[in-house]
Amino acid sequence: MMIESLIRANAPTKYVIDSFLNNDDGNIHSYTTQEKFVSLILSISQPNHCNKRGAIIDWSIVVFLPSQRYIQKLVQRYTSQLEENNIDLEDDNLASLVCYFSMTRSISVLPDSTNASIVTFRIPSSSTKDDNDILQIRTFPYHNDVGVAKVWEAGACLAEYIIYNPHIIRGRHIIEIGAGVGLTGLVAAGVGAQSVHMTDYTEACLDNLAYNVHENAKWLIGRGMSPEAVTVGKLEWSDYSNTQKDGELISASSDYQTSIEELDLLLAADVVYDVSCIADLVKTVSKFLSCNPGERERIAIFATPFRKKSTFALFEKELERNHIVCTYEPSLELLPNVFPCYWNQPRTDVRVATMRLKMHE
After folding, report:
1. Predicted local confidence at residue 60, as pLDDT
2. How much is the mean pLDDT over the chain?
3. Last residue of some domain: 48, 74, 108?
């Protein structure tokens, strides 16, 4: 996988540096290796400077898309490799970058929960060849709300599944529950959905979802999707499954309003983790599937990491109790890896399942 893609995704710094040196034949002694490293940092920063030989970059005006803290740790790891090999900083821009970070000292303080990081991905598409066709997702790596902290592995896996099986979502009106930072819903919107309504329940998640939709408006238009067809709303499973009438969903970001009768596909990733929420989660899915179908059969697609056996067993028991049939996708290992984020939870631990109501005999 390209080194640029690893940095864009905030991959672990050790993995990035090892991959960078291996990609350069391990020639850490080469002066051009330092130049290449600086050019790599600049390629995913704003403004996108040209690293001309002899031109000293003013790093104070460079906006690092991955957080400044992440880039600082990346530079620190690379320069540590140089020191271990008794190599001087020969590239002036690398030296000035090290100097800049030594003055800012952002790595020496406690992480700030309000510090954002932009992770970016190039999404495969047959309809666009634009090199700038990049999906941007804002995360808050040190936030105490896990919904905004990162792109979770199951969400990335479900997005990859959608990218390479677009017929599943093409033309559908989608609701996503537990949308988190919005990667899966935005990908669905970008590969052929008719509309996407992303829901979560915390204020931090809803604000960040609205931001990510707004920032990717141009990306959506380039994919033939109207940004107005991608909406955000609050949905608590307990309220929806027990008290909310007529499946009404109100957007948190506008006066947009839709009824569940207009939707025909439910998406969810990494929502099976809290045993206290599983009953309401499954009731929500059951209520969605039970609504009168339109022209298409209603289905739900879940991506679920297999973490704790007892939690997953309870989830499957609740599905059975609510007459929901679950069919697992057997061939995830054959999917191309679009999102380099399977560091903590390997893709092999994620299951993708399609859910339908059991037909009564």
Report:
1. 86
2. 85
3. 108
